[in-house]
Amino acid sequence: MDPLIVAAAQYLPVLVPVAAGGIWLTLARNEKVGLAAQALLSLALVAVLIHVAAAIHADPRPFVVDPSLTPLFAHPADNGFPSDHTALSATVALLVMRYRRAPGAVLLAASFLAGAARVAAHVHHTQDIVAGVLIAVVTVAVASAVWHWARPRLPGRLAEMAAAA
Known about the structure:
Helix 2 crosses helix 6 (126-150). The relative contact order is 0.19. This protein has helices at residues 2-25, 29-56, 62-65, 84-99, 101-120, 126-150, 156-163. It has one domain (2-163). By secondary structure, it is mainly α.
């Protein structure tokens, strides 16, 4: 069981954005522009929110709090709050979900599974995962609102690409 937990904890957060890239390739041009614009904004915003949250709240890793716990893979004994892996993969999944609901839901489930695996691997507490998901929700909501506001105001060729079907 441990190898499965390790695989989910380490590889699902990487597979989510890779799968999202594949899904992006299938989108119409206007959807590609919208998803790409929101993704760029989201990546910057999620990085800022992760750092702010970590500065506000410290949560030592489970194996630091309880030395009898051994992490299932090598991990530094730094602040585990929030889970940046969960925040990033959930952000990507939620962005995809805005354009393709079913594949996005599958990616979101994979993000949750990765977070649960990171808890089972003793490198995060549940609150770290929940915070990562909440950061993803806020990030995507802000990026969506900014795109909704900015899209009709885009100049020239960019506006044409964003509106083309």
